[in-house]
């Protein structure tokens, strides 16, 4: 019976994979599922039904930067290798220092790849950010398109992909597009918060970038299903396969804004051509600072009005976020 090891089991993507595995597993308890991450599920803001799933798997908390802990995480009582190893543990958060990405993306991938030798398949979660500005020409990027990693986060993921491909076991690299769904805090969440703020303030929802800009999207549950399907497909093959992961919506910035606007009952207001022209050329840090100054204050006021003392959600837009939204990876 299959044995699954999930590195990063309590993050946004790992949670979805745990849910998917628990939904598919037979009732006889024959599947071995081990989750590993740096945070306790009880502290991850999971709803009760999701938290209950973690009580049914072998979950271990520890420092993913620690080589000894990772080695222990891979060790099984019977000494056998894992059938499926999912490296979902790479840092995906924007705005971290370069050395953080080096440790939590590149070095982690190298260690996981080394420890995965003997596994039937390694599934490595990367990001469509590796395409960077190359995806900004409204032409979908295929899997073999040249990477144009624009920042420390994207560069570390590009390096991590190389480690996964060289693991010496059947491997799959997945590059999800702009990902949304339960647990999202930084991808679609800022636009949703902007919609709520516009509704509360009785104003139109301002939207930067052109209406027609293509923004590939994917639900996190579909990423989890894709990871399982790709792993099962690749385990009988040699070498490594790379897949971009996006839905079939061929979504544009205008469609995304209209969907959020409809959800909150507000009209999106696309900035005029001159403003968008300047926004595209304005340094990302300056653009982010301008947006953050206009949103953080009203968001804190809205939380206080409803008696919310602390929220994991924020409208904060990191300088790298506009690049991630302007990415089309095709289907």
Quick take:
The protein is α/β, with parallel strands linked by helices. The protein contains 11 helices and 11 strands.
Helix content percent band: 40-55%
Encode the helix/strand succession as letters.
EHEHEHEHEHEEHEEHEHEHHH
Number of strands: 11
**Global morphology:** globular
Low-confidence stretches: 322-326
How far apart are the termini? 32 Å
Order of strands in the sheet with the most strands? Answer: 3-2-1-4-5-6-10
Mean pLDDT: 87
Strand content: 5-15%
Q: Helical segment tally?
A: 11
Rg result: 20 Å
The assigned structural class equals alpha/beta
Main beta sheet: strand number and arrangement?
A: 7 strands, parallel
Structure write-up:
The protein has helices spanning 12-24, 48-54, 67-74, 98-115, 152-165, 189-201, 220-234, 253-264, 273-281, 284-305, 321-325; strands spanning 3-7, 32-37, 58-61, 84-87, 121-125, 171-176, 178-180, 205-207, 217-219, 240-245, 268-270. The chain has 331 residues and is an alpha/beta fold. The chain is globular. The two termini are 32 Å apart.
Architecture blueprint of SSEs:
Blueprint lengths: L2 E5 L4 H13 L7 E6 L10 H7 L3 E4 L5 H8 L9 E4 L10 H18 L5 E5 L26 H14 L5 E6 L1 E3 L8 H13 L3 E3 L9 E3 H15 L5 E6 L7 H12 L3 E3 L2 H9 L2 H22 L15 H5 L6
Parallel strand pairs: 1-2, 1-4, 2-3, 4-5, 5-6, 6-10, 7-9, 8-11
């Amino acid at each position: 019976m299959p044995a699954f090891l999930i590195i990063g089991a309590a993050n946004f993507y790992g949670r979805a994979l745990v849910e998917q595995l628990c939904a598919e597993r037979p009732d006889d308890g024959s599947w071995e599922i081990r989750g590993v991450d740096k945070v306790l599920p009880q502290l991850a803001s999971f709803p009760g039904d999701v938290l209950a799933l973690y009580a049914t798997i072998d979950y271990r908390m520890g420092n993913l930067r620690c080589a000894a802990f990772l080695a222990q995480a891979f060790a099984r009582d019977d000494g056998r290798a894992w059938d499926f190893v999912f490296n979902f543990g790479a840092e995906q958060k924007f705005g971290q220092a370069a050395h953080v990405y080096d440790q939590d993306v590149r070095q982690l991938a190298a260690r996981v790849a080394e420890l995965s030798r003997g596994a039937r398949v390694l599934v490595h979660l990367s990001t469509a950010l590796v395409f960077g500005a190359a995806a900004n020409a409204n032409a979908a990027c295929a899997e073999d398109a040249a990477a144009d990693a624009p920042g420390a986060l994207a560069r570390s993921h590009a390096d991590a992909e190389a480690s996964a491909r060289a693991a010496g076991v059947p491997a799959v690299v997945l590059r999800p597009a702009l990902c949304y769904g339960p647990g999202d805090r930084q991808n679609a969440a800022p636009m949703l918060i902007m919609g709520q703020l516009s509704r509360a303030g009785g104003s139109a929802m301002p939207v930067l970038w052109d209406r027609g800009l293509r923004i590939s999207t994917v639900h996190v549950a579909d990423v989890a299903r894709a990871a399982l399907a790709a792993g099962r497909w690749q385990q009988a093959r040699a070498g490594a396969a790379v897949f971009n992961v996006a839905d079939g919506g061929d979504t544009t910035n205008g469609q995304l804004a209209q969907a959020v606007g409809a959800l909150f009952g507000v009209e999106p207001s696309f900035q005029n051509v001159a403003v968008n022209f300047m926004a595209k050329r304005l340094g990302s840090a300056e653009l982010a600072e301008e947006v953050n100054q206009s949103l953080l204050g009203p968001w804190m006021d809205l939380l206080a009005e409803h008696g919310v003392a602390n929220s994991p959600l924020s409208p904060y837009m990191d300088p790298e976020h506009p690049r991630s939204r302007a990415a089309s990876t095709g289907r």
